[in-house]
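Figure-free illustration: sequence to structure, shown twice.
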Amino acid sequence: MAGDTATPKLKRKRHDVQAQRKKAKVQNASSAVGQETAATPSTDLKTTPAKKVTAHGIVKTAGTPSQSQKKGKKHSKDGKSAVARSGSEAATPKTAHAPAASFLGDAPTGDVAEKLERKRLKAERLAEHREQRQQEREQKQKNGKQQPERRNRVVASGINGDAGVQGGTKAMSDDNLHDEQVDQKVPPDIRDPGDEKINNIKREQDDKKEFTANATPQTSVRTSRKGKQPKSKARSSASEPIGGWFLSQDPVFASDEKHLMLATSRSLQVYSTETSLLENTLQAGSANITAYALSSTTPNRVYVANTSGLITLWDWVESEKIGRWELGAHTRHMVVIQHPESRQDLVYCHESGTTHFLNVLALRTREHSSPTESKTILETNSPINGVQVLLEGKLVVVATSKSVLIGKRLKVQKTALQDFEYRWREFQTSQRITTSDAYVRLPDQLEKDKQRQQDPKDYIDLAIGDQEGVIYVFEDILSSLLTIEKSQKSGAEVETFADSLQPKRLHWHREAVGSLKWSRDGNYLISGGDETVMVIWQLSTGKQQFLPHLTAAIENLVLSPTGTSYAVSLANNSVVVLSTTELDAKTNILGVNSRRIEFAQMPLEADSSAYSYQRFSQIPMAVDPKNPMQVLYTAPSSQPRSQALHPPEPYMQTFDIAAQGAVRGQALTRNNATDLNMGPDGRKILEPNVEFLQFSEDGHWLATVDEWTPPRADFEYIDEGDLDFKEEERAHRRESHLKFWTRDVKNSQWVLESRINAPHFFTAVGAHARVLDLVSDPSRVGFATVGGDGFMRIWRPKTRGHDGVVLRGAKGDGVVSWSLEREIALSSSLDLLEPSHSEQASLDPRVARLAFSSDGSALAVGVSWASEVDDGVIHIIDAATGHIRRSITELNVTTLSCLGILGRHLIVVGHSIIVWDLVMDEIVQCTSLISPGIDVWDRIPLLRLAINETDRTFAIAHPQFQTQQNTPSTKTRPFKKGSMVVHVYDPYQPEVLCTHKIPDIVLALAAVKVGKGYIALDSSSSIRVLNSQNAPLQLPTPPPESTLALKAEKDERDEIENDDEQGDNALSGTLAVLPDDEALFGASENDKPVVRPEQLQHIFDSGPSHALPPVKDMFNAVVDLYARKPKVVPA
């Protein structure tokens, strides 16, 4: 065979096998019964296997005669049966009565001979396979010794393979595992071009084994695998979560201070301090990050711990994993220092659980000569809040909730890890400790005449802050503890309290101290808390310096390595870097500041009947029509981790999905950023809450609704003995505002243009009513609201004028004011069925929802009244006249949650998903919603609905609260696990198109403006893009007999949607009517229409790639060009 590069030994063996096969075939042919079979040419009896190219491009040999008789005809790749030929000769055509030939074209054999031949060939193949495997192992060992030096280093970086690992620590390496998998999948001999033929034979043997096991041709197996994928269902895909809340750990400066490291639960992010831009992201995988620390020996390496008990060493510059170690414990704090002798990393880890441990780890890879070791230095039952290691591990400071432990190493001269033993001294505090920091004073910083009782390097100053806002400064804390220890009787253990140490007391903060740090020279203390003020304390003079009016409460403070910058983490998920001299912001990093719900705020497993699910109410969110990659949502001013309240949301934040970062924020209501946030009675002054947010159809206007209700504490003076009376008085003092904002393109802000006080109100009592929903008119600029007063109102802009002259503003534009265009009174179902029924129920609707049709001609209003006997009603209103055209009372909407219109269908989400055909006036779909762990009534504020007009789909998100498994970590936290399931539906199909499972509660769901998909914002402040990707696009070619049916269905849809436009308007979302059957197929080939290149360019070059219309619309536009009747040119 040409190009055969097999070894001589293998050639001789194969030649002997072929000779034996030839002899057996001749014997079988002479003993065959009957003479029906036509004579086969000698070329067909060649023993050289025929080559066949499979779908993967691998050269394969044809099967043996016995295999062909057992398995029948072999199918080629295109599904057609074929007779294999040897060499380049073709087989002789068979007669009509000839039996089926085998793959090699030989005559059929007897049963006995066939069995013997099959056993013999099987033994030969087995011998060949064993010999081949032996050659592979030898070649693999040979290649393994010749691997590059870099690969050996990576493999050794995570695996030690030694028996000296102590403390249950196990070393692993992702890179090594990856290399081993590659070696298993790709044989080493493939790298040698001279052994290509041997590899082909090995592939042939593997393919024959798969062929025998399946008992069907390989091409048929592949076809069946493809056929298993249902064509009607789309492959769902979701992007990785973007954003997330930064961990409550101090930010980490790089050694050069040009980069700042922050971590969310899913990734470690590296930002540039010069540009505030994200430069690198290290993904954590399925487990969540719990702690991270920079290497003390290699500046470009960082240790990352996660919830699965793993510590991973990353090269954050190259985004490469260096090593990985399995601890089997939950690491909460991590500090890295240099070993005093080997100058390698020592990692101090706090492992949390029922008992808290502080371990010292020497994590080593194969590039180190020493093994991985572990040593436990502290065990306590109190939760550890902070760990600080000083003087290369000589001193360790541990802070718990109400005590501080200071450990000093005993055997300083011994540097072996197993000799690390500490003497611990502890003192108690009366208040809960919220933050602490220690400072080591060097000998040149001490007074010369000061007499001390310990080594000069052991002079430690300690500062702690408590929940009452008091800062305690302990000077030379070790001397004070040693003095008290000596004054006590020998052998007696007496608790030491902080007051007995006579600390210096600093008190300015009204609430708990959020963070506290020493300056590099030890002369200043920097503190911050919920007051949004950073305080700099000068200890020698007692003076204070303030940096007020930060955007949120201060949670973490850290100084840069050189002491020239402060990194301040705020409670609105942002980090700002300030210069220490000018206190000017050099870096501003914004995270997603949407409402965050912690795991401890989930309902309890035991009893959740009194739990309020209103904290999961929907966050107002909208996609910018002019910037489809930007989403706008409401955000609180501050969300301190120490408070589990549901704060109001007076701000709006803009997040860019493409840039994966927040770009700006803006206040929509009055706020306490510059005003006092504390009342005379010491209670916080609450800000208004933004309830709704919507864009106009042109993207130039933004409408918001904010609401403020006095706190319940302000009505404690009313003592009528009736709680309902207090709530009624409180509701009468509600303030509600409808605001209209115009876009300021130059300054990238929204400017308030009009404000309407009390858009809905109770006339009888003169009180503001709640606005229950807000929607935008998709056909022209305008908005519709429905309120608790039982009215639906439509608002339109109007240019102001006087005596026919347009009033112009400062920029020369006409002054626009918004006013009420129309209001419609809504009646209940009982009022419709029984006109004499009291109208009291209509004054107190429980839930009301609005939905516009895509063309703006119809408006649906669904109302669920606060009445046990009223099932609710859905009104279909003519938006042009304001008349109610239809009142749907057949549906029970007492648990109404969402409402929408998609084409001719009305989507109602409540107890179930109902699709109502507005034209046929009937139900077409009804799907039950099953949400385990939550009641149907409690589920109302958690359901989400979004409609995508581009691909004509709608998405439903519903919650699931499941009980945690009985593990030691969940016994102390018996909370339910909340998650969401998002289903995407097509109103014309009863089954679900795709399903997305989100591990958190979805607080907002919206459809993308360009293309297919949805955007979800969850309770972890993460944004996900949910896509529904169909199978590869194939242009449909319907048969002629189905054309009339397609035309009839098309005409029906066009009539329903009032789409009478024709021609080349398909790009604007209007689908042109298909031509009739005669026009489409009756024209002859010579009468084809002429399509100019300019027409195609108009379709495909209508804008940038991200702004192109849907593929369906472009396809219909092309079909309109080629399927239209040719123009008749008059003679």
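We now fold a second protein in the same way, so the two outputs can be compared directly.
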Amino acid sequence: MTKSGGFSIKKRHRKLGALIGLAALAVPFAANLGTLGDAIHAVTGPQNVYESKLLNVKLETSQDKAKTTWDLEFDRSDMSVSEQTVKFKLDLEKAGLTDAEIAVKDGDKLGEPLDMREGIVDAVLKTQSPHLILTAISSNEDKHDITLPVTELGLYNEENGENLLPADNRSVDLTMAFEQVAEIAKESSSETVTEAVAKEEKKAEVKSEEKTAEVKEEKQAEKAPRVVPSNNGFVPYGNADPAKWTGSQIGGTEVTSIVMKSRQFTTPQTNSEATDPNNFQIWSNRQYTRQVQTSTTGTVTHDPNAAIEIRQKLGLDSGTIDGYKEGSAAAHIQNVRTHYHAQYEQTDPQPNRSSYLIEFQNASQVTGSAFTVVYDNVGVYVDANGDEHQIGATLHLSNIVAVDGMAQDNRGVWDGTHHFIDVPNNLYSGLIYQGIRSLDVTLQFFTVEGGQFANIINVQNDSADTTKASITFDSLNNFGTTTNHGTVNQWDATAYGINSAQFAESAAKVVGNTLDWNSARTAKAGTAMVQDNSLANEMKGEWYSTAHGHYTTDPQYPVSSMAMYDNDPYDRWVDVAESNTFERGAINCPITGTTNTFRLFSGTGNTWQTLTSAQINPVALPEPYKTVTDKTDYGSALAELDAYTSGSAKQAGDYDGESVSQAGTFTKNNTSYFVHNYWVFQPTYTVGDESIAKSNKIVMTDLLPEGMTLRDYDLSDTPVTIDSQQDVSVIVPTGTGTTTPLIRQTNSAANDYSVRVEKDADEPTRQRVTVTFTDAGIGKTVFNGDDIGFSLRVKVDVMSAINAKSEVVWENQAEVITGVSDEKTNKVTTHLDPLDANIALKIHKVDGDGRSLSGADFTLTRQTEYTNWNGTTFDTPTKSELEITPASKTADTWTFDNSVSEGADGTPGEPKLKPGTYKLSETQTPDGWTGIADIVFTLNYVRANPSLTPEDDHYDDLKMVITLPSGTTWNTFDIDTGVQVDVPNGEKEAKVKLIKKDADGNELSGAQFQYRMIVNDQPEATWHDLDANGAIFTMKSGEQLDYDRPSKKEVMYEVKETQSPDGYALDGSIYFKVVPKSDYGLYSNLTAPLTDVALLATNAEGTEAYGWASMDEVDGIFIGTFEVQNNPKSIFPRVGGTGIQAYIGAGLIVMLIAGGAAWYIKRRQNQ
């Protein structure tokens, strides 16, 4: 129907119109909302809005565009109740407010929004003056006053208690002067609303960033370079002491620990490796201090008029500056002035090895002097997230007391001429002081941002029994003597039993003006430190070592090893940071607050004292790691770990997550194994950073996965303590970047570690390997942050792939136990895939043409087994006889698969089809067929996908390969489940013989016959003559009949008489088949003959079976005989001829006609 009048808008035009309309509506809407850049921020208050005896409420309001904020402060007067509840109802609808949320504000943190269904608010007040923050959107964007009614106001001690507020004073109106929301400015008429909004937001972001930058610059400008200005490191006299710097603090949960790093030096110059003096400053309180730089090892001048000289020694050679240099006092001080102490931490490059040498003209100048050294980099503080941040420090030296007339001055260590302090630019290295009896050192730590001190660190412990930071004073030698060890002028480094603090190096925390000896802690595992309570006044309780501290390498007192005094009954200790007993000569003092002062005491007037934040007892080792790989050397294996931990590699070792079939093989007891390596890497901490004590116990234990053992030790070989360093070896760090293997010898007391291999107590099918360090091994291990490496050489059976019905996965995780920690490694996995479906061998019985044949039987016997995988296939045969039972069989097929055989006692045996050589024997041949001789063939497996790499899921896919003896022409086929071998049987020779007879059974001669074969209904074109011997006709030599194989190859034969005896008619064709006994069952309507092969008479089409004719075996040839009868010549064809049916029919017709005629005549006569 046609509709006239009006018009219709197309669909796409309707959509376009709608968009235009929406845009038109959006313009005024956006203009009312305003933009971020033009937002109005109106703030009013605070003002009292409610007053009562128990509760006062103040209100402060603010506006950001259409968003309003109502800050309600609830001031409670009754604080005898810890918590009270306030309830009220807001009429948001009347106020024109939507999207409201309210939450309790705790400090600067806003809690989760409270439930305010129907405008009812219920909040718990836990402090005296908590705040509730209400935010809501005004539905009216024009300038107006907002009135927010508050009703049903109540204050409660209990949730369902009495309202404590007066009944007549439980409502209030909150008001706000709401300003009109600014419009969005558009730069052009073509600019869309969205573009305008985006542009304004971008402007707001830029303004915000600029403001942030301005504030940051203002704050940075408040900071002086480093702490105070300096003249190339020397702070001018009269300037403020850097140790008096005051600024903002950082502490509490923001600082969990302070770590002074042993290898941390002040930051060198930007464009060179030389020390930057502005990062390593010194201040002095003495006006007449000479400041001079020294950068040469030559003779340096000394100003005899200078009361104090501060020598800035930059990038000098290392040399020993403590003790006393042979020669003269002048030679000694020249050596001090021109060398960086050899026992300080050394840095490479040399230009950043520097120190300040403070020389006093005489003992009187020592008194009253004070100095502050500034370091921009001494270590890190650790925050609550475990992240490290650089810190700087100030070291303030004061209350310095010179040696004056002490008895030990005459020992030759110090001749009393010089008084000096040497301070390096590595705070951990501490200081050397000579000619000084004692001095106070005050430490402060600072956060560093952009090379500037930002905040002073306030160490605030969480509780009385926790310590976030401490200072350890180690190497506290005691130069006192005993009756049997030296005299006052000679000491013995092996001395023990010292019972006095007179000549001991010591340290104490200074609290106020008092020495606090009792807050110090000693090592838990054993210590030589005791307190001398015989002293008077503030020295009572001074700590001293009862042993000298064996540090010398003098041949008279050699240090034999770092484990020299591990079990010493006198608590002697080796005075080397990497020794096992170093912590015996140390004390540890906790630090707290921003400033901590300690007093150092010299035992001889010549002392080098380190300063470290390290703990005095061993601490937990870092988390260990594990890799699985083919790497046998420490460096290559560690490189794989580094790639994994850095994230550049996803694998923990080259084999992690991959197939072990890529590994090399090893044969033991005629069994082949894949051999690879586990590495366990245990990082050490740096002695001097985390702790001054090394772990006093290191045990690595690895519970190997089931089916895996050490290469040379089977599960049945355990338990045993092994001596071989081939299966288990340990490599330890001995210095920066250097390692050494630990020693394991047969029953040697000098062994560095022991290895125990045993069945696990809980899982006896798994092997546990335990490696335990001896004291000697720990002594050889340098704790410098490098890794201890444990290598385990392990093996898995190559045949695991064939044994398994599913993928074999070996997951492994080791464990490292110390005296204070028990940490597990990451997990690593390797796997070996099964043979999937490609594991069956099918023996298929066929005839010579490959047609299935029944009636046979076989045995399959494994003669040898290939025990080695060479990366491509299996080899190395060993004798392994086993008759294989077929998994299934049918009339013509025997299937042997790789399932596990069952032992005589019913327990699982071994896989059936291991690679190797097999003998196939035909134990029963189908009747009528020729048998086969035993045949020996090879069954093996090769990679199905040789081009794949080990990480591919199908890398382990194997396929079966059958290799038949040379000259064997059997057919083999790759099938989905493996390999099929067609085992053919040949047909026995079969012939037919005809005997010509007459009707009376007498033999007739003179006939001739021919035969031909008909295959699948197709007659051959060639006829073959039968040889005549009188009345007997046979096939020629070399000719034989083929068997008929219904539905496979249908064969029948036609025999015709080409010449009949004289007086006899030609006989018709004869049709027959040659049938082996295996196929007799196909003709169940006939009684089967007893012979193995028979002739079956049939019609010309081969569809009818008329009867059997037996075939007799004569000299291995089956011969079947037909008797052919001839009749005398007649006008009738020979019985059985094809024309007789017509003549019979005609005769019957004649007889019927004659009979009918006779009956008709007779009837007429009767009538």
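Summary for the second example: The mean pLDDT is 83.
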